[in-house]
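Please describe the entry underneath.
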Amino acid sequence: MGVLWTFTASSTIFVVARIVIRLKTFRRLFVDDFFVLLAWILSVITGIVWRIESPVLYEMYALSAGKTPLTPGVVPRLNALMRFEAPFMVLFYTTLWCVKFSFLTFFYKLGSKIQTHRRWWWVVSVITLAVWVISVGDIDYQCSLGGVEFIFEQCSKPYHIRWQNGTFWANCAGDVITDLLILSIPILIVWNVRISLTKKLFLLGIFAASMVIVAVAIIRVVTNHALDHNMDMTWLWMWSFIEMGTAIMISCVASFRQLFVTSQNQHLYGHSAYHPGNPLLTALRLRQTRSQAAGNNSWRGYDSGSHKSETAFVAADQVHSREQGDAASIRTESDAGRGRFIEHVAV
C-alpha cells in the first residue's frame, strides 16, 4: 500500500504543478493537459479500488497457502474481488493510453504544417488507438465476471492460464512499441532542424524521458514471467501502479521545461513571454526556409541588409513572443548582436 500512495501522491504533485504552470504561462489549459488530468483521475479511481479490495486478495492467498480456513462468508468476497479484476485492467490500460494521447496531442504542433511529419503523426496515432482497443479487448473477461463457479472450474485450466499470460506479454509489447513510435515523432522533427548538436541532444533528452515508462513496463512483465501458472496479482498490481504513476509524472516534464523557457525570456526581455502555444513548439516550428518577401503571405522577415526573407530556426531559450490581437511577434538575437524582427500572422 505504501507504493500505491507514494506514486499517487507524487503524480498528484506533478499534475498540480503542470496545471499551475500552464495557467500561469498561458492562462488556459490545452488538450494534452486534459488527457493528463483524465489519466490522473483514472489512476486515483484505480487506487481506491485496490485499497478496498486488497484485503480480500491477501485473504485469498492465505486460503491458497492453507493458513486460513474456507468459510461461507469468504466466497462472496472472493467473487467481488474477481469482478474488479477486468475493470482494473481496463482502467490501467486507459490510464496509460491517456498519457500516450497527451504526448501525441503535444507533439502534433511540433510538425506544424510539414506534410511528412503530419502523415507520420497520423500513422502513429492510428496504431496507438488500435493497440489500446486490442489491449482492452483481449482481457479474459470470463475469468473476472463469469462468477465463482466458472472461475474455480475453468480459469485454473492450462489453456486459460496460457491465454491470460500470453495476452499479458502481447499487451506489454504493444505498450512498448507505441511508446517508441510516439518518441520517434519529436526525434524526427528535432533531428532535421538547424540547431547545434548540444541543443538537439538537450531537447531529445527531455523527450527521451519517456523511456523510463518503457523500462517500467518491461520490468512489470519480467517480474511476472510465468507462462504456465497464474501470476502473482499483488506483484502485478504494484508494478501497474508504478507504471501509471511514472507515466503521469513523465508527461508533466515538458511543462517544467516550459516554465524555464518563459522565466528566461522574462529575464531577457523584461516581461513574461505569452503565446497561445508553447515557446518550445514555436521554436520547433521555425524550420529554415528561404522565400521572396513579396510572395510570402504568412511570414515576413525584415533585415537591414537584405530585401529577402529568411525564417531562422532558433532554440527555445532564445524565443520571445507576445500576443497582439491576432498577431504574435518573435524577436531573436542576430549573430552580430543586432535584433531581427519576424512578424507571424496567426492562422
Summary: Residues 259-347 have pLDDT under 50 and may be disordered. Residues 2-251 form one domain. Residues 71 and 82 are 17 Å apart (CA to CA). Strands lie at 289-291, 299-302, 309-311, 320-324, 327-333, 339-345.
